Amino acid sequence: MTIKGAGRYYDLSVYSIPTDTAPARLIKRWTSYPDGVYDPGALNIQFDMSIVPYDTPTGGQTIVLEGVSLADLQQATEYTNYQIVLKAGMAQGLPLANPKQAGTIAQGFIFQSYPNWEGTEMSLSFVIYPSPYTITEPGNITLNWAAGTPLSGALEQSLKTAFPNTPISINISSNLVSSNNEQGYFASLNDLASVLSGITQSLGHQVYITFQNGSIIVFDDTYAPPPLELSFTDLVGQPAWVDVNIMQVKLVMRADIQVGALIKMPKGLKQGPGSVIISGNSLPSSLKYKSAFQGIFQVIELRQIGNSRAADGTQWVSIINCAVTGSD
User: Fold this and answer.
1) Strands (DSSP E) along 206-261, which ranges?
2) DSSP 8-class letter at 247
3) CB-based contacts of 275, cutoff 8 Å, min separation 6
4) Rounded to the nearest 10 degrees, how much is the dihedral formed by the CA atoms of 61, 64, 65, 69?
5) 3-state secondary structure of 29
6) Which among 28, 41, 131, 324 would be 20 to 30 A from 79, CA to CA?
């Protein structure tokens, strides 16, 4: 007998905001694997989170915990403005589960937390944003890009000033040099990303800014990290074209893929567990042992979908949209 949710790992933690005199303090934690052992009575968690470049407006992300206690409901509003970290993926428990692919999939600030009680069902919802800065709560994001200098240096100075405690990774072409002085003040990363998108496109490159797993990641179309090779058993169904040169692939939930990363599609399932030699009369079935998509693609959008107690395997997946790179 298979226990629903077995193998699906999540760890949701709420922390206080650190200050100059006090570090961040753990306020509350919920997990399906306390001390590394599966808990069949763990709360059900649901989320549907999109991670896209900041020039694409998406709004906040929502995490819902079902089956919470009355004490948690009474504390719901106290979590607002705290930090939140969600780790998820697969843990040991199923034959093809890979615990090494689990990790942090969301990290940010609680914009709003609220309870809900219908009949005998109690739930606690969190609306989170990766950055604390918004139009109503602006940050100190100032860009001073001098003519004749690379964008990377000006952008690093701007981001380190506005986000002093946040890891920053900038991977853009050194040829991104403006002939004019580009200066401006921005209330949020959305504003900065939208302006830079227009400027850099006119210079022949597309720059993307994204906030993922607690880090700010900046990359452009020249970014070429080592590709992450997928296994055939990582796939949930066949990939599909969703736009011109844009492939969508659904994977068992994992935390080790970031926006901007390169992935290499598997060539097929050969001499692996469960493979069967079949005859030519079974050709339609043989097509299921390999992907119709081959080569290397760049991740441009990422979506994490989770429902820890759902029986359907498609309710614990990572969906990625990837652009063709022309590499094999």
Assistant:
1) 207-212, 215-220, 228-229, 240-243, 246-252
2) E
3) 269, 289
4) 110
5) strand
6) 41
Residue with tokens 């998820």: 88
- Alpha-carbon gap, residue 14 to 291, rounded angstroms: 40
Q: Residues 299, 10, 26, 166: what is their CA dihedral angle, to the nearest 10 degrees?
A: -10
Would you tell me how many other CB atoms lie within 10 Å of the CB of residue 32?
25
First-to-final CA distance of the chain: 42
Best CA proximity match to 66, nearest among 130, 15, 16, 12: 12
CB 109 within 8 A of CB 81: yes
CB atoms within 10 A of CB 237: 12
Alpha helices in the chain, H assignment, sequence order: 70-74, 151-162, 189-202, 283-286
pLDDT in tens, the chain (328 residues): 345 557 899 999 999 987 777 888 999 999 999 998 999 899 999 999 888 777 665 667 899 999 998 988 888 888 988 999 999 999 987 788 889 999 999 888 898 999 999 888 999 999 988 877 766 677 788 999 998 899 999 999 999 988 888 889 998 888 888 888 888 888 888 888 888 888 888 888 888 888 887 788 898 888 888 999 998 889 898 899 998 889 999 999 999 998 888 999 887 655 444 444 444 554 455 555 565 678 899 998 999 999 999 988 899 999 999 988 866 6
Enter the pTM of the model. Answer: 0.83
Name the residue type at position 307. N
Q: In sequence order, what are the residues at sequence separation of 6 or more whose Cβ sits closer than 8 angstroms to the Cβ of residue 189?
A: 54, 131, 133, 141, 209, 211, 216
* CA 67 to chain centroid: 25
Return d(Cα 13, Cα 85) in angstroms, integer: 5
- Listing DSSP states for 168-181 in one string gives EEEE--TT-B-SS-
